[in-house]
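ugh ok so i messed up the first submission bc i forgot one of the chains. this is the corrected input, ALL of the components this time, i swear. 592 residues overall. if the numbers dont match what u have on ur side tell me asap before i send this to the collaborators (the ones from the other lab, u know who)
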Amino acid sequence: MVKLQRVQRPKTQRGKRALKEREPKLLENARSLLCIRGNKTNNVMKVLLKNLHLLKSPHSKMYQRKNLDILPFDSTSKLEWYCQKSDCSLFAFVTTNKKRPNNLVLARLHNHITLDMFEFELNSKTFRSLDDFKCEKFATGNKPCLLFHGELFDNEPDYKRLKCFLTDFFRGEINMKEIDLNGLEHVMTFTIDSQTKLLSIRVYHVELKKSGHRIPRIELNEIGPHIDLTVRRTKLASDDFYKKTLKQPDAIKQKKVKNVTTNELGTKMGRIHMEKQDYNQLQTRKMKGLKRGLITENGQQSEEKRKKID
Amino acid sequence: MNSNDLVKNILQRDVDEQDRILKSTEVIKACPVEIDLGNLLVWDPNAVDQQAYKENREEYIKNTMRDNMQLLVNALWEVPIERHDNAIVAKLPDAKTIVPREKPVPKPKPLTKWQKFAQSKGIVKQKKSKFVWDEQKKEWGRRFGYKKANDESKVWLMEVPTSADPNEDQFAKKSAAKKERVAKNEFQRLKNIARANKINVRNDGAIINKKSTTNDVKKALATAKYSDASMGQFSERAVANEEQQTRGFNKKRKYESNLGSLKNEKDKQLKIFEQLGSSTTK
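and heres the new structure output, hopefully the right one now
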């Protein structure tokens, strides 16, 4: 596919730029989400999908039509093809049937090949969508703060992967070097209970209130979807494939700057290492009087010179 | 002290105490929390308080998460700060949790023939100016692009050199030479691609040791079909569904039978007639 793209050149600058966006890069784009409906979906699941789409926008694409004969746990080839077409590396697939009611499949891809896939059951009784909370939401494209709680995230390997997966899914922009301190608008929290293995996802709006000092006091107001999920099935990547995807390019790694330090006052100090100097050969201002030849014990030569001038 | 005053004092103390708790940014946790500022991530390893969780799940979640968020903000406010116009901006450290990449690490592209040569000779690309002086128009024009300066295709007067044939069309010669150069450039570009992808290409463009795809087989079948004197009109079918297989690769046009339905023929002719009259077709 890539070969063909190079043989047939893009005819416009816009096409060229679009292709460049899709190429593998050193500093990557944010992961895009592809929202797809399956063969049969009920209202609750449609709303859930719409909510996920809104949470991840603008890095999200929603496919409007129903898609027959997609069974993620049998074969993900069709989903992978759609993701390649839309240049997405996450997908959310929603179905409901008698055997698996209120089914949500979330997956992430590497190079358009499925890495990890998690199938959840949504608790439709406790589900509340974005519309159910009548308050100010967050700006689209804002980077959320992610909070995880629950020992299960550290104890079981499946849930450990799930924690990494959820970070990857919701984190938004990658490689952000700076953040506006007033721009911390929303928080996504993931709480997992060890007994019921229920994953609770809550989204809050952050309020910075005055405290006595510089650091503000935080208050949270719930704004977003109120989701309770239970893990049904998982399909995780093999360890070697997973390790391959973790490799970071060498060019990104920050080069160590040697011999430069900043002292406590904030001044930048540097160290210079000099080679050994021969002080006899130093270039200085020439003062004739100090010339080796002229200075004698008696001072005779200097007298001779004075006679010449006179 | 007056009893009234005493009551006032106690109430005041209470209000102050309340104020202090509300405004406090302190958080005490049993187990220290792991903060990854690069990802704005907080991982709270403390156990979930089962009793509080069961009693009022929402309250419990909200309170623990408020505490965690407070810790994140405390850490974030410690980070070096810059001022960009009106916004106060914190410089985030690198992300601690390593997350799988979306796409593989980009491989460096193999050098083209020219790039290798330039590297070995030490030739460096010279930056060229965007605008060039057009002597004829007496103004600055683009080096290339829309209405470029010194446009060779717009030359209206050419001297015929003494060694040339007087009946030769010099303009045609010039445009033919340009076409040659463009074709040669395209050829070199394709050769570079073949070299980069390690595809062996023969001089005439055929690929050596190529594995045939289904399309190639179909093309071969169609070619074989129309290679005889009557372009395959009278030869037998090689495969049962030959027409379907060779659909895109036929050379001979399909004609309707003379003794077909009159209605079809009439519809076709009318369609052509309509297209002649309409303004949407080219």
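quick check: Residues 28-236 of chain A form a domain with the Rossmann fold fold (CATH 3.40.50.10480). that seems consistent at least. The radius of gyration of chain A is 33 Å.
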